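User: Can you help me understand a structure? I only have the sequence.
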Amino acid sequence: RQAGGSELADLKHQLEDLVEEGEKQQKRKEWLDKDLKDLRQKLESCQNEINAKKEEMNRNTDVLAQLDKKIKDEKAETERLFTKRQNLELQKEALKKQYQDELGHRGKVTDEHVDLQMQMKAKEDEIHALGTGKARISRQLEALRKEKASGDAETQRLE
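Assistant: Let's start by predicting it. Here is the structure, written out as tokens:
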């Protein structure tokens, strides 16, 4: 039971870590979205100076490509973490069910143990009663044998 509890605690900790990581990634995505928006505004304002700023535009295009790749990577990572979280939730529920099943089984085994103890006590009492009855019958038999021997001796004496 402790192992199941420890596993649940580990899974809960992992889930909390994943949620925290997801929140961090969401903030980073918002920052990247804002940064991307700012860059696009800058490109629009610089369109009148295209010839003079052509080199800067190429640089910004590269930056945008990197940011788009980062966004794509972050989205893929977010999806992966979401899927992992769902799997962990399923595992958590399965462990809870298994724990409840084991508790039920333990109760059943305990009840069976108590029943067997009671049956064993009843058999011990029965064996004790039979032993006591046997001793009493043995004493009565011995008394009857003595009485018969005494009666046989009396009969021989009278003959």
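Now, to help you interpret it: The chain is about 95% helix and 0% strand. The radius of gyration is 45 Å. Let me know which part you'd like to focus on.
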